[in-house]
């Protein structure tokens, strides 16, 4: 275990609870990732101490989830969630329990968790507490619900999305009964807030085996119970057939753009405006941010451009994001290297290395770099309609990028006088 530093830093919290007479353990995903030798993110602690007792032991705290027994403790510059052992009652909304009961038994606490690989606890000296064969499932690369999978998914419908997300992230298989329970209970997903589904879907896209995650998304019928995507089930299937599972997706917005690019392709290149509108409708339905929409549309436009052009020109890369273009070009190249016919057919030539050189060759990177401004135009030309000044600057911007004139103030003014029709 080479990634235990986060646990070493948090160990004094457990020792403090133990010295006060309480049980305390590291729990959840951090323990799983430690055993898999993956990067550790949030280290969580479960304890027999009640919230008020945790508060008294750690004066620097935030009561972020007091009703559910969670105290956020500030310790040595880090924050840690400390949660009292608990059981949960019925779930009226398939997400939140009606009541939480604090208990003094770790096994009861772990029984309420989603999957065996997440129902592990650990002491500071790395002694694993495993009531549900989670370590065996880790070794066998299996995702299995704790106890009855039907009960777990009726308690919290989001666990079904988490299951297929873990399949993608860890490249694990979903155990047969757990898979059947997801398929049988898929309709519960309509009761889950779309923002939570979005988080899980985005994580699925960027997993080490996103093909596996998407395959489960389709085969469990979860796709039928989320907004809009049921209409694109054939497009998902098409992507799985026509891309290599050995090529990972760089980020979730890239992934959504890839999906909508394939929608555009299958539509016969009919209407760019229409596909852009479909993206906007999707982003709104899934309650994504404006930034996500901007990035999805930017990636989509790059894919569409490359569909119609064999190479980039200076004027066409100007104003675009270099990193985004490089990610698209690299993805195309990797798919071609993995003998994916679609990418060899649609994208006739491809050299990701050229992009860096093209951006270096740009004479300007934005309108701000232009060696002339509105005051210069007023002083030298003084157009009657001052609103034309902005149009003149845009005209000069394009002329510089097309290398029709050098970016020099005198040259720009002369070019404007000779070529711009006022």
TrEMBL record:
The protein's assembly and partners: Homodimer.
Protein residues bound to Mg(2+): 42, 44
Further remarks about this protein from its record: A single active site specifically recognizes both ATP and CTP and is responsible for their addition.
Residue ranges of every copy of the Poly A polymerase head domain listed in the record: 24-144
Family classification: Belongs to the tRNA nucleotidyltransferase/poly(A) polymerase family. Bacterial CCA-adding enzyme type 3 subfamily.
Residue ranges occupied by any tRNA nucleotidyltransferase/poly(A) polymerase RNA and SrmB- binding domain in the UniProt entry: 171-231
UniProt-recorded name of the protein: CCA-adding enzyme
Gene giving rise to this polypeptide: cca
Cofactors: Mg(2+)
Organism per entry: Aerococcus viridans
InterPro entries: Bact_CCA-adding_enz_type3_sf, CCA-adding_enz_C, CCA-adding_enz_firmicutes, NT_sf, PolA_pol_head_dom, PolyA_RNA-bd
EC nos: 2.7.7.72
Function comment: Catalyzes the addition and repair of the essential 3'-terminal CCA sequence in tRNAs without using a nucleic acid template. Adds these three nucleotides in the order of C, C, and A to the tRNA nucleotide-73, using CTP and ATP as substrates and producing inorganic pyrophosphate. tRNA 3'-terminal CCA addition is required both for tRNA processing and repair. Also involved in tRNA surveillance by mediating tandem CCA addition to generate a CCACCA at the 3' terminus of unstable tRNAs. While stable tRNAs receive only 3'-terminal CCA, unstable tRNAs are marked with CCACCA and rapidly degraded.
Binding site for ATP: 29, 32, 113, 156, 159, 162, 165
Record keywords: ATP-binding, Magnesium, Metal-binding, Nucleotide-binding, Nucleotidyltransferase, RNA repair, RNA-binding, Transferase, tRNA processing
Catalytic activity line of the entry: a tRNA precursor + 2 CTP + ATP = a tRNA with a 3' CCA end + 3 diphosphate; a tRNA with a 3' CCA end + 2 CTP + ATP = a tRNA with a 3' CCACCA end + 3 diphosphate
């Amino acid at each position: 275990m080479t990634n235990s530093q986060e646990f070493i830093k948090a160990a004094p919290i457990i020792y403090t609870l133990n010295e006060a007479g309480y049980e305390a353990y590291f729990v959840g995903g951090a323990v799983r990732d430690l055993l898999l030798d993956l990067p550790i993110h949030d280290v969580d602690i479960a304890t027999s101490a009640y919230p008020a007792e945790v508060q008294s032991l750690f004066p620097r705290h935030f009561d972020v989830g007091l009703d559910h027994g969670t105290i956020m403790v500030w310790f040595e510059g880090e924050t840690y969630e400390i949660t009292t052992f608990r059981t949960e009652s019925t779930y009226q909304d398939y997400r939140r329990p009606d009541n939480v009961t604090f208990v003094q038994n770790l096994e009861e606490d772990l029984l309420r968790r989603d999957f065996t690989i997440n129902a592990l606890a650990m002491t500071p000296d790395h002694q694993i507490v495993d009531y549900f064969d989670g370590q065996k499932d880790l070794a066998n690369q299996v995702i299995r619900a704790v106890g009855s999978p039907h009960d777990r998914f009726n308690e919290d419908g989001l666990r079904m999305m988490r299951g297929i997300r873990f399949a993608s992230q860890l490249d694990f298989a979903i155990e047969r009964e757990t898979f059947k329970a997801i398929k049988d209970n898929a309709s519960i997903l309509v009761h889950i807030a779309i923002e939570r589904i979005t988080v899980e879907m985005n994580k699925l896209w960027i997993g080490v085996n996103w093909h596996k995650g998407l395959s489960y998304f389709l085969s469990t019928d979860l796709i039928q119970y989320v907004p809009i995507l049921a209409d694109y089930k054939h497009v998902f299937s098409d992507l799985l057939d026509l891309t290599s599972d050995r090529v990972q997706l760089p980020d979730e917005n890239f992934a959504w753009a890839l999906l909508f690019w394939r929608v555009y392709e299958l539509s016969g290149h009919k209407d760019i405006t229409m596909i852009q509108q479909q993206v906007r409708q999707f982003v709104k339905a899934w309650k994504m941010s404006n930034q996500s929409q901007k990035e999805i549309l930017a990636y989509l436009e790059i894919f569409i451009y490359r569909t119609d052009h064999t190479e980039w020109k200076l004027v066409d890369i100007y104003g675009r994001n270099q990193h985004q273009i490089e990610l698209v070009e690299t993805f195309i190249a990797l798919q071609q290297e993995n003998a994916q016919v679609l990418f060899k057919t649609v994208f006739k030539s491809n050299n990701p290395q050229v992009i860096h050189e093209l951006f270096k060759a740009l004479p300007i990177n934005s309108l701000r770099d232009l060696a002339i401004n509105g005051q210069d135009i007023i002083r030298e030309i003084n157009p009657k309609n001052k609103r034309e000044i902005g149009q003149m600057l845009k005209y000069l911007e394009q002329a510089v990028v097309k290398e029709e004139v050098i970016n020099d103030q005198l040259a720009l003014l002369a070019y404007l006088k000779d070529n711009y029709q006022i």
